[in-house]
Amino acid sequence: MAHAVYLSGSGVRFDVAPEQSLLEAGLAAGLPMPYGCTSGSCAACRVRVESGVVTHRAPPQGLSQAELDAGYVLMCLAQPQSDLRLALHQPQDVSTLRPETWPCRVLERRWLSDDVIGLWLKLPRAERPFRHLPGQYIDFLLEDGRRRSFSVASAPNDATLELHLRVAPGGRFANWVAHEMQDKAMLRFEGPLGAFYLRDDHRPSLLLAGGTGFSPIKAIIEGALANGDDRPMHLYWGARHRNDLYMHELVRQWVERHPNLRYTPVLAEPDPEWTGARGLPHAQLLADYPELSGQSLYMSGPPAMVRNGKALALAAGLDADHLYYDSFEDAHTTWPGLG
Ligand SMILES: Cc1cc2nc3c(=O)[nH]c(=O)nc-3n(C[C@H](O)[C@H](O)[C@H](O)COP(=O)(O)OP(=O)(O)OC[C@H]3O[C@@H](n4cnc5c(N)ncnc54)[C@H](O)[C@@H]3O)c2cc1C
Question: pTM for the complete prediction?
Answer without folding.
Answer: 0.93
